[in-house]
Design brief:
9 helices; 73% helix
Length: 184
């Protein structure tokens, strides 16, 4: 049961990291996601990372081993955190650096917790949701899923901009190409 919950959470977390749908649910009228002062978005972010840290804590040895192997990545995150000292907006930079640290720790957990085949399966579920939500928004909600501005008529799906959709679809195609069919 816990393994199924863990997998479902990871699909939700990966879906969140794609940025699909977020700008339409939490964003502004121009379709850009704004997290500064957006209490519901910050609550979602905090909730997801809190659950992620629970799973990280359950597998702390695995994450610690992975962190030692990824020390150069953590050093770059450390530079991002240190850059708060010379930033124009130190508090904002520090908060965003902490999110970068949390995302990096989640990535270390994800990479160490699941085999490559399991990672691909979880990513395939995630991208199935991304593709489905993009098709839904482009076909059934064209006011949101189709650009009505500079690139009139271009599909943007569940993303605020057509290039973000393209990036996600290219990655989805690669995941779908390499995934081996089996049960979730």
């Amino acid at each position: 049961m816990l393994k199924t919950i863990e997998k479902a959470f990871n699909v939700a977390m990966l879906f969140y990291t794609t940025g699909a749908v977020l700008s339409f649910v939490f964003g502004s009228s121009d379709g850009t996601a704004r997290d500064e002062g957006n209490i519901p978005y910050l609550a979602l972010q905090l909730g997801l990372y809190a659950v992620a840290f629970c799973f990280i804590a359950m597998r702390w040895r695995l994450v610690l081993r992975g962190a030692m192997n990824a020390s150069w990545i953590l050093a770059l995150v450390g530079i991002a955190i240190a850059s708060s000292a010379w930033s124009q907006d130190p508090l904002f930079t520090f908060r965003r650096s902490l999110v970068l640290l949390a995302t990096t720790l989640y990535a270390i957990y994800f990479g160490g917790r699941f085999t490559i085949a399991e990672q691909l399966r979880l990513l395939s579920w995630t991208f199935a949701l991304v593709v489905s939500s993009s098709l839904f928004m482009a076909i059934l909600l064209p006011h949101y899923g189709v650009d009505h501005g500079a690139f009139f008529g271009a599909w943007q799906g569940a993303f605020p901009q057509k290039n973000m959709l393209a990036r996600a679809m290219v990655l989805a195609a690669a995941v779908f190409y390499f995934v081996r069919p089996s049960a979730f």
